[in-house]
Amino acid sequence: MKKYEKITKDIIAKIENGKFKEGEQIYTEKEIKEVYKVSSTTAVRVLNDLAVNGYIYRVQGRGSFVKKILVNKKIYFTEDNNFDDYINIKNVEKSTVLSVEIISDEKICEKFLNIKSRKLLKVSRVKHIDDIDWAYQINYIPVKYLPNININKLEDFSELATMIRKKYNIDIHKAKFKKTIKVTLNTPEEIKKLIAKNNEPCFEFDRMTYLEDGRVFEYVKIYINYKYYKIKIEN
């Protein structure tokens, strides 16, 4: 386990056992450096990870504070596409591949994939039923996990999980994952034109899928028109 991961885990434990209570300020960057004897880079990484994983929120000029969270509370979480309320479904859901490319993106590598900048496979798809485009999905996967990948046949990527399972023996659907969900009114314009033509709000998802050894296999960004998604939470 890397040093920043150990520190992040330790601070999470302090949040969960009540040392840092909801709404209280946690360590500053300077305090993390002093308490754990690490560099500014490591301290910033720790705070970023805590924020991305929903443990803290940050206030410019004031510091970082503990969020009200349900982390590690045992609940039952059910997702539903909510199609029945809006669509007279005649056909099955399909994906249209808009682009497949090899890119470099330092921000995504460091923030979501926990790796130094390297080549990524980027697959952009829109999901639709009948003539309704209801979701937009972008997958980012380090190319090192996909040797000899051929990006010239777009149709091979319409069912990306199936292709990866068959070609690389990695079953994304059975892998561990972490997902954050929020509602946004700031869907990118090029995506809004496809799935939110009337400026509807969208659900925005950030999902990381993990290999058995704990490494992040992929990062997925998803936008769904608010009409076509709902959740139910029970304890």
From TrEMBL:
Recorded superkingdom: Bacteria
Ranges for domain HTH gntR-type: 1-69
Key words of the record: DNA-binding, Transcription, Transcription regulation
SMART domains attached to this UniProt entry: HTH_GNTR, UTRA
Family matches, as Pfam families: GntR (PF00392), UTRA (PF07702)
InterPro entries: Bact_HTH_transcr_reg, Chorismate_lyase_/UTRA_dom_sf, Tscrpt_reg_HTH_GntR, UTRA, WH-like_DNA-bd_sf, WH_DNA-bd_sf
PANTHER family: MANNOSYL-D-GLYCERATE TRANSPORT/METABOLISM SYSTEM REPRESSOR MNGR-RELATED, MANNOSYL-D-GLYCERATE TRANSPORT_METABOLISM SYSTEM REPRESSOR MNGR-RELATED
Name of the protein: Transcriptional regulator, GntR family
